[in-house]
Amino acid sequence: MSHHLDADALRERLAGTVWAGIDVRDEVGSTNEELMRDARPFTALTADFQSAGRGRLDRVWQAPPGSSVALSVSMPLPSDPARWGWVPLLVGVALRRSLRRLTDVELGLKWPNDVLARATLHDEWRKVAGILCNVVGGTEPLVIIGMGINVYQSREELPLPEATSLSLCGAVVSREELIATVLEELSSTSAAWVDGSLDHTYRASCVTIGQQVQISLGDGPVEIGRAVAVDEMGRIVLQEAGGGQVPHAAGDVVHVRPRDTVEIDDEFFKIQQPDPAVFVDHLESELLGSPRTMRRADVAHAVGTDTETTRLIWRALGFASPRDEDLVFTEVDAQALRRLHEAMAEGALDATTAMGLARAMGRTTDRLAMWALQLITDMVAGENEGFDSRTAFLAAERTVEMMDTFEPLLNYVMRRNMAVAISRLIADAEPESHVGVVRTIGFADLVNFTQLVRELSERELAQLVSRFEGTASDIVAAHGGALIKTVGDEVLFSHTTVEGAVAIGFDLLDLAAEDDVIPRMRVGMAKGRVLARLGDVYGTVVNRAARLTAAADPGTLLVDKAVADAISGGDLARAVPHPTVFLTGLGEVIPWVLKRESH
Predict the structure, then answer these.
(1) What confidence tens digit (pLDDT) does each residue in 409-427 have?
(2) Which of 23, 91, 188, 430 has the most CB atoms within 10 Å of its CB?
(3) Could you tell me which of 218, 130, 248, 201 has the C-alpha nearest to residue 398?
């Protein structure tokens, strides 16, 4: 990595912002001291090397040239001095958000001024960044914010064993991009210094809360207790051995017995917990990029149509219809509805198709959103049974932070799956007009699932269902099949070839036989023409496969004559006749059991 910051690239990246005139130097004594000599609002200074950098309690902070970020900025302080204690804490929130945007590193905040990092949930927290704030008085007080971020240092180059760097956590990031992102986040979060809208974000990210800590100030006494809260002034609140709670506005904090999971008594969390409605509104604004400012009539005007048309599109997307007077829409909502309306107005889509597409996207993403949030909630909850309010708030925060990662991935997967769907469409095309497509349909069913539901705990049941759905999805995808849907104890899949479907069936049975979590399985399969509509499949062939699954013995693959005939003569499996069975709605059928050929 170059030791020299690219000043031109950095200023170009910051063009149009209040930070466009950032001062970039090779070396300074201390970036904070330099800015304090001529303190003016919204100035920024960064250097490749600090020869006299200082942290809190006048500790020396120094790093090899070009290995870290040394950045100082000056910004106006809130007019209410009661909010000043929150400034270093909320700068920590901005730093954490910046690093979350650029890396996949696990990040936490240590009260009052450290950002902690770890490569995985199982690693120990180590300091990756520090913050030092100096107040400059006057009629309009300023705060000089110094930030030091360990970027490229090796273990030997770090000053303390409790420290780490982004590169040691597996992240590679440009220092210019990191500096620009930090400055953007400082600008976007500075309003929260005044209105407190990110106080709950700090508390949710602060790993000090819930820990047994010792706190000291210089040569003064050391106090030990459990950190139970950050109060309305940004002070850490310690519960001491006698049960009393003492707030501390400053001090050097050491986590005496750090834990990966934070345990906070309900009574303390209730004090810290923000109003749920305010919390949800805040996260919604972060997700959508703008607050709710529009009514139905406002949206219709912005879209260029009537309120009934926008109501129909909104309902097709799966959202509840608001009252005329409700302020529930954002500028982003209006933009989305405008795009779909323009596609209809320009003739690219007729109304029926447009509404159908809106309904498909709404249903699919509704399930996707619930699924993703549940997975992240499970991760946050860890080994704890169930989840409480704190877990819910933490999971919500983490999910919103991850949206910048999810969104491009979702767009990519949609385009990749569209390419696969197009290839299937072309492959299914026949010279003569026809209804439906020929597919081999398979059902896989967990044996004795109802009994398992009664025997397993909620967590064990969730683990079983998640593992079954996940591994079944992997197997279907590995053989080029299509997973139509999963319903608890059952998966429905299809394949364009009999051989591919049979390979899926055998692998599913093998999975159940070898896996300690997933119980025994049975698979039914049928081949023929099906109606494929809206991501699902319909017809007698689907019904026959489902009924054969119910008739199959545990650990077997039971198929209809069409599958048995197609597989005969090949080296994948042999078909053995099964006694006649009665299938509800289909009558008596002679099925076949497929057995894998040994080689």
Answers:
(1) 888 989 998 888 888 788 7
(2) 91
(3) 201
